[in-house]
Task: inverse folding
């Protein structure tokens, strides 16, 4: 089982990113579940979402404790939340940041998802949309296929800028 | 069609397929996405139902009662405090023998303010005369909602049915979902005692001490008929759509020495615990209760039971535990109160309950006792 934990702030689309990711995995003919951990959500508050991908049906509902991959949509969360908690030894962290980030003991990938969203004018209510571009980065990492990432985005959003941003992220991510 | 959906969206999709004439709902918190999605279906013209947004859950149930008594199919959904607010009318719906279907997203009650999973809301309606079913996956939420209409409207039953799904854990999780073409799985609703809307008339409904108990006995007779009707709905569902359900969901129970008894999503998590316990040589099984009322016959003799309770009767004990103990007095049982207010309960925790079970005792998970 491949387990992913997504850190974001309320309103940034972390929950939707989890759902898109599960949908893409499902289109890849795998079993997947996406679960947000949230309650009384507030804009700007830290939100955690979980995605499990497996070749077998998934029975586990409890939260992911040892993720293989951690996605951080807002690097400022790392000031207050221990995003690395429980990460597996060979785990990877994908961070939305224009600058390289150094974290001890784990593999870190960075990509400027905010810049990518702004470049294609993917902005809603003044906030750049991060949940569709991040899917492109995850496809580049091989978590899901590129085709399924695009199909999942198109299933949920009709605005083609979402696909464009995902494609840009796919090309831009350096593994 | 194979797709992915949340528990909420799955219930809405099933309701759409069941084609109720009326959906009445209080649209504000603690309401769920279920009625939001149904409202979208109705607005988009994908569902030919009268959608009535009302000012309270009490009114939502009342509107469903008013619709149902004219002989048309009706549905509502709620959660936690909303369910409690309609409590009075739940008795009325069952007493008037109206086959209303309701989805309830099981959530804790305040204070403290908590929106997470717990079964106390449904347990508080235990004695209203509603059939209560509990589900554990998105697919099961969809399938059971379809079955609920067929069960409720069976003329040998004519009792309302509540489909319960765990708040957030199941209502908000995204899993795969196979929707079906229901065909005539749910026959047209025929309510023998419906009001003739073409010739409206009012009758005094005062029922004196000489008769009231007879109506209550009729409810109980319908409840006693219901296991056969629910089983038939499940068998017919399996025949048509290939997915099998029963009063309980058994996982490796046949040769088990210890059974983990639970309801809702904890029952799936328990199956992972069973797999791990068996690797250690502990012959465990998982028995997930799907029907809470009517309460099913259980094959539990000569086994240790570890009962997971997500609801509690203060001054007495776990509510599921109580149902099992009063039906099976000789059962050897370890009562675990776990998962209240969304308390995280993992498969490792459940395996620990089994390893450290103290038969005849009660244990509050997470509390030093």
Result:
């Amino acid at each position: 089982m491949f387990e992913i934990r997504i850190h974001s702030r309320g309103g940034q689309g972390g929950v939707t990113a989890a759902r898109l990711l599960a949908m893409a995995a499902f289109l890849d003919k795998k079993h997947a579940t996406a679960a947000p951990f949230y309650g009384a959500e507030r804009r700007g508050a830290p939100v955690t979402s979980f995605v499990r991908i497996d070749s077998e049906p998934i029975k586990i509902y409890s939260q992911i404790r040892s993720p293989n991959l951690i996605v951080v949509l807002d690097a400022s969360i790392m000031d207050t939340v221990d995003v690395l908690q429980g990460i597996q030894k060979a785990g990877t962290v994908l961070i939305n940041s224009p600058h390289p980030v150094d974290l001890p003991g784990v593999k870190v990938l960075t990509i400027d998802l905010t810049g990518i969203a702004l470049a294609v004018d993917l902005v809603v209510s003044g906030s750049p949309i991060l949940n569709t571009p991040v899917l492109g980065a995850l496809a580049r990492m091989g978590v899901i296929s590129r085709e399924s990432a695009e199909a999942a985005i198109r299933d949920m959003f009709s605005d083609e800028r979402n696909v464009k941003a995902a494609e840009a992220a796919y090309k831009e991510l350096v593994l | 069609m194979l797709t992915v959906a949340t528990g909420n969206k799955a219930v809405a999709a099933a309701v759409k397929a069941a084609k109720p004439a009326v959906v009445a709902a209080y649209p504000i918190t603690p309401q769920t996405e279920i009625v939001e999605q149904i409202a979208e279906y109705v607005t988009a013209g994908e569902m030919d139902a009268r959608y009535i947004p009302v000012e309270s859950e009490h009114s939502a149930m009342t509107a469903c009662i008013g619709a149902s008594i004219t002989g048309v199919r009706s549905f509502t959904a709620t959660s936690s405090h909303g369910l409690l607010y309609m409590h009075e009318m739940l008795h009325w719906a069952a007493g008037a023998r109206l086959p209303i279907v309701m989805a309830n997203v099981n959530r804790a009650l305040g204070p403290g303010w908590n929106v997470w999973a717990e079964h106390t809301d449904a347990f508080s309606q235990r004695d209203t005369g509603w059939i209560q079913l509990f589900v554990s996956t998105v697919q099961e939420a969809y399938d059971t909602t379809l079955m609920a209409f067929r069960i409720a409207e069976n003329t040998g039953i004519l009792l309302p049915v509540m489909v319960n799904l765990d708040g957030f854990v199941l209502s908000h999780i995204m899993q795969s979902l196979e929707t079906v073409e229901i065909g005539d799985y749910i026959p047209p609703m025929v309510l023998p005692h419906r009001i003739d809307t073409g010739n409206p008339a009012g009758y005094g409904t005062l029922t004196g001490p000489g008769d009231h108990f007879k109506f209550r006995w009729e409810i109980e007779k319908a409840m006693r008929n219901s296991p056969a009707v629910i089983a038939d709905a499940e068998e017919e569902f399996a025949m048509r759509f290939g997915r099998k359900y029963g009063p309980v969901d058994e996982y490796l129970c046949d040769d088990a020495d210890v059974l983990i008894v639970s309801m809702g999503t904890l029952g799936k998590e328990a199956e992972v615990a069973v797999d791990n316990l068996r690797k250690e040589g502990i012959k465990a099984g998982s028995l997930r209760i799907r029907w809470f009322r009517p309460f099913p016959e259980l094959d539990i003799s000569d086994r240790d039971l570890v009962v997971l309770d997500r609801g509690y009767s203060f001054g007495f004990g776990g509510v599921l535990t109580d149902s099992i103990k009063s039906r099976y007095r000789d059962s050897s049982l370890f009562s675990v109160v776990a998962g209240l207010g969304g308390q995280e309960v993992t498969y490792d925790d459940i395996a620990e309950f089994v390893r450290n079970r103290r038969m005849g005792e009660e244990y509050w998970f997470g509390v030093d006792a």
Summary: Chain A has a mean pLDDT of 93.
